[in-house]
Amino acid sequence: MSSVSALTFQEARELVVRTVQSSGFVPPREDAELAGSFSHVMAENIVADRNYPPVARSIRDGYALRAEDLPGELQVIGEVRAGEVSGLTVGPGQAIEIMTGAPVPTGADAIVMVEHSLRQADRVRIDRTQKAGDFINPAGAEVLRGKIVVSQGQRIDFAQIAMLASVGCTRVPVYCQPAVAILSTGDEVIDIAAKPEDHQVRNSNAWGLAAQVMRAGGRPVVLGVARDEYEHTRQLIEQGLDADLLLLSGGVSAGKYDLVEQVLGDLGAEFFFTRILIQPGQPLVFGRVRGKFFFGLPGNPASTMVTFEVFARAALELLSGRSEPDLRIAFARLTREFKHKTGLTRFLPARLSPSSGELTPIGWAGSSDIAALARSNCFLLADADRESWQAGELIAVLIP
Ligand code: AMP
Ligand code: MG
Prior knowledge:
Largest sheet: 6 strands, mixed
Radius of gyration: 29 Å
Distance between the termini: 29 Å
Shape: elongated
Oligomer: single chain
Helix content: 10-25%
Number of strands: 28
Structural class: alpha+beta
Bound molecules: adenosine monophosphate, magnesium ion
């Protein structure tokens, strides 16, 4: 394909999302234990079993009283703790000592924080005013009974686990996680346990990709390394097509021994694109063969990582049942000037400072520099049609 017809980053990503969505793939379902549902995708909507909170509750330690009695000195007629219901009614000039989370007693319409009270025996003096409703969470303020609290197609993370636990969902209807075959290619690529000669590299991509797949909610199936030889590559690709998604690393550039596209073509593959306007990762291939989607990710480690995060991950998230794939793009201030050549969208290793939120590009020796990637915590996202950014300017960041 010529560079003229290559897709931009946005066009290519939209094409991936649209193509996978329109395939109509629905993953099989299973019931998971609550803890085991982490990182899966909900296969059903879960609704609130009651109002949250079910009764009006105090959100402070203090005194439950009638706002109209303030300021004033009130008689303390009792106490109510979290986990108790007070049988008492707060009348004019009265207050009940109350703890955070306790139901607001009848008659009271406001809470005064204990810090704003002066207690002496059964009297309490409060010198301020308070509006009705202050520090009270009314019944149903968070969610009403029967309303959806976790939606079908939503990925289960810690907050969803807490929500499911809260409504008593101990068996969670989830989609089965898709199996993702990972196939490395290249005569120079050897097993990570072996000792490489100077002309060899360990199969780091398979391990990095497996971690990326797990983070994205997939089940990695690592197939080893295909030699740059037609029959061996074909045999392993066919094996990879047993999975729900096939990821290949390497063998998609213009080199004489880049056989991946040839093999896939012979297997009857449909190619949606074979090159995109990004760097690293220009020779990215996306297609479908025998009903399975595949990505031919360029083998340079940075290219592999970036193209997975931006494109393959979207496909995987949709195949795992998610209604919408994630792409976390934020903006951060640069600590120094940044320049690049226009025409390609670049994703470069960078560090977002946890203290200042500022962004520093990481110096690197190109897309084989795994050490630079391992020092980074995000990717600076340089727009294809803008050449330079000054120190202090905002620039886009892809947060993986
Ligand atoms: P390729 O995309 O096959 O042309 O490979 C590009 C570069 O990435 C080469 O320098 C390879 O050595 C390197 N590479 C390819 N596959 C892997 C892998 N599985 N792990 C680490 N590096 C790789
Ligand atoms: Mg190769």
